[in-house]
């Protein structure tokens, strides 16, 4: 259905849609009718400047009650992104803070452990490296330095960090036999390489991209990552990697459609299981 009038920005989720509408912040429940009104609303104070959601003049919004959360006054954010159970904040000085808790802590905070953080905490491993962009997936996080380097951390179960994934290696060893898929002695086949697999990367890792690619924009889905280097990685069960198949990948692969059709990619936005690309003709 149609969005409420005067909508300036929105942030969708499975349960609610967050809106910046006129001079108000609103949360609309899934399936709500316009005549029913929002589940929650808060007016901006006079003089408060609207910010790109989920940032708000007085904190940040989340797609569940209480909908609006405060930020420490000392944290001056230029961008804030939400994972399923964690938050990543890019400060105006290029530093990164993370926090979050929940049932699944998979290193997505980047502090070297699996403990939750209830308050914003500096990602010390990246301190001193000015960052220009951040993104958060379901349980993984990425950042782009001002020089175009890509850093990744968190859960790598589907190869979303472009680091070696044991789950994907095991799938590659599946061979058809008697109309069934059987695993061919996978432990022996994996051999010593098993020690090199990464399921959780609790510290930020600098990703070595092919051909010295420099990243300008990055976005995360639930279990995949896309960067404006014409490379994408992660879970491809629903074709969200753009490689004309539904195979998952733990290696950066060029999305060949765009150069093949004379298109230059300018922007990318990942949904939970899909990817949107903004491109122009060369």
From TrEMBL:
RCC repeats mapped onto the chain: 94-147, 148-231
InterPro entries hit by this protein: RCC1/BLIP-II, RCC1_domain-containing, Reg_chr_condens
Domain of life: Eukaryota
Cited PANTHER family: RCC1 DOMAIN-CONTAINING PROTEIN 1
Annotated protein name in UniProt: RCC1 domain containing 1
